[in-house]
Structures are given as C-alpha cells and as structure tokens.
Design a protein that fits this description.
By secondary structure, the chain is an alpha+beta fold. The chain is built from six helices and 13 strands. Bound molecules: 2-acetamido-2-deoxy-beta-D-glucopyranose (NAG). The site of 2-acetamido-2-deoxy-beta-D-glucopyranose has 5 residues, from helix 5. It comes from Podospora australis.
C-alpha cells in the first residue's frame, strides 16, 4: 500500500504582480491560474499529439472541461477517430503492437475553444497516456478547477525534449509540414460509436477524464480573452520551458504535477494503473513564470495539408 493519498491542492491567488511585468502583457494575460503544464519529458508522444492538434491543426490550447458523461466521451472518441470500423485504431485488432492507446486531442473530457473544432488522435505508448491522464485528473481536482467544470490552457513543458515533435511549431512552423502517418484527424460529428467501431479489448476507455472528480466546487471561472496572435516562451521557477499563446507575465502562477513515487511513475507498469491510483501518486504543485525567453507575434501555423 505505497500510495497514500497525496493530492495536495494549491490555493491563494497571489495578487502581487511583479513590477517587471509590462502593462501590455498584463492586459493580455489569461486567468493566472489556468495553465495545465504537461511535462513532455515524461510523455513525448502524447505531447506530439497535443501540439500537432493545438498548433498544426489550429485547435489551440484553450480547453473547457465540461464534465461530459461516459456516452458523450465515447462520441468524442469516435469524433477524434479513435473508435473506427473494425475496432479501436490503436488496438492489436487493428494491427498495432500491444501496449498502445489512442490519445485524443482535445481530450474526450473537454471541448476546445480554438479556431478549429477538429478532434485528432495519435497512437501512443500506454504508459505515456496514463501519465497524461494522471496530470489531467490531478488538475481537475486542484483548487483551480475544483472538480470542474473549468476552462484551462494546456501548456507543453520542455517542448524541445527528445522525441517531441510539433511543440516548437511557433518557432519553427515548417515542422507542421512533416509527413506523419500516425497523426489522424477524426471524422468529427456527434454520433454514437457502433459495435463495429469498438474493440472491447480494454483499449477503448482510455480517457483521462473517466472518473469524475469528487470536489464540490462547481464554480466556472471566468476567462479573459487572449490575443489571437501573441505567443511567448517562458521559464518557470522550477526550470520548465513553456509556450503560452496569449502571453504570460512574470510572476504568473502555473500548475504542474510531480509524482510521489518517481519509480512508479516512470516504470512501464504505470500503464496498468487505474486513473485514481495514478492521481494518488501525483501532487499538484504551483510554480510561477520567472523569465520571458522569446516572443512571437504571429498567427498559429497554418494547418498542414
Ligand atoms: C515506489 O514504487 C516502486 C515500483 O512500484 C516500488 O517498488 C517501491 O516500493 C515504491 N516506493 C515507495 C516508497 O513506496
């Protein structure tokens, strides 16, 4: 029984805005609490999928966790192209090696708030999908989301980590033109998956938001509008590099997760952990933006053709 419940929530809006923050940037800032940072070192393939959808397909990084029920999540998995004729796209039935799961962006537990309402998918190693699931669910249960619903902004920590593609799309938009058979745009729509479209081998229900958070607070946070064209790259106090469409200000806080037992988090068996078990092995921590590294004033890269 190693996993003690350790979901620490973090609170307290630090009202103190650093004097180093430019007024312009502060106007552009989104809700200061809303950054859900994924550590791409832990989930390179998952980051690749998220960044491809967010940047190369114009889905963006603004997401709303709307607490959909299981049927709605299945419809979204189908819309993302994970549930296809003959079974789950990433299942052994469809010719994939065991140990892969179909990762959707936006997550089935969310709807995007960006320019495109596409849903995309990529087959990723199951352990990486589980780490993403743990990160997302910990955030849903954090003080910021309060169990949901909530609006938040996905943020890709260490976007240049080994094995990560597309997360540097603002710096190098041409990355989006790379041929990548594993990136699939779903058919969209709101139809229920048919029996033929499910694998029923454990690969269909892989969404991070499967278990509803228990926290009572249902307050929907109000989000200010971001500029559509401004993107900044920043370093957090814990050294993570993140790109923030719309910009951040020095002192802006951001959430990330850290495993309680790092060995467990890193080992392949993480793929076999249930969502709650995964969440129990994570602590939600708060950090803040301490340095602006680079900024771009450009629209998101055009979708690849
Ligand atoms: C951490 O996880 C590993 C792998 O499951 C386990 O062998 C070890 O006992 C755990 N450590 C603690 C302190 O619980």
């Amino acid at each position: 029984m190693m996993k003690s419940f350790a979901l620490a929530t973090v609170l307290a809006l630090s009202a103190s805005l650093s004097s180093a923050a430019s007024p312009k940037l502060m106007l552009r800032q989104n809700n200061p609490d809303d950054l859900m940072i994924f550590n791409c070192v832990d989930m390179p393939e998952v980051c690749t999928n998220m960044c491809w959808g967010a940047y190369c397909r114009s889905i963006g990084t603004g997401l709303t966790y709307d607490k959909p029920d299981a049927s709605e999540k299945r419809r979204r998995r189908r819309a993302a192209g994970c549930l296809v004729s003959g079974g789950n796209r990433c299942s052994t039935r469809k010719g994939y090696d065991a140990g892969y799961q179909c990762d959707e962006y936006p997550f089935a537990s969310t709807v995007g708030r960006g320019a495109s309402d596409e849903r995309v998918n990529r087959c990723v190693p199951a352990g990486q999908n589980s780490r993403q699931g743990g990160t997302i669910n910990s955030f849903y249960q954090s003080a910021y989301c309060g169990g949901g619903p909530c609006d938040f902004t996905a943020s890709f920590g260490n976007p240049g980590a080994a094995g990560v593609s597309y997360c540097n799309a603002y710096a190098t938009p041409e990355d989006c033109d790379v041929d990548d058979d594993n990136q699939v745009v779903g058919p969209g729509g709101t139809q229920d998956p048919t029996e033929d479209e499910t694998a029923d081998d454990g690969t269909d229900e892989t969404d991070p938001g499967e278990e509803e958070p228990t926290t009572e607070d249902k307050k929907l946070r109000k989000i200010k509008k971001r500029s559509k064209t401004f993107v900044g790259r920043y370093r957090t106090a814990v050294g993570t590099v993140i790109d923030v469409p719309g910009g951040a200000y020095i002192g802006q806080r951001a959430f990330y997760v850290e495993p309680v037992n790092a060995t467990l988090w890193a080992e392949p068996a993480a793929a076999l952990m249930g969502v709650q078990e995964m969440v129990d092995n994570l602590v939600v921590k708060e950090t803040k933006v301490v340095e602006e590294i680079e900024t771009w004033n450009a629209p998101a890269p055009a979708p690849a053709v």
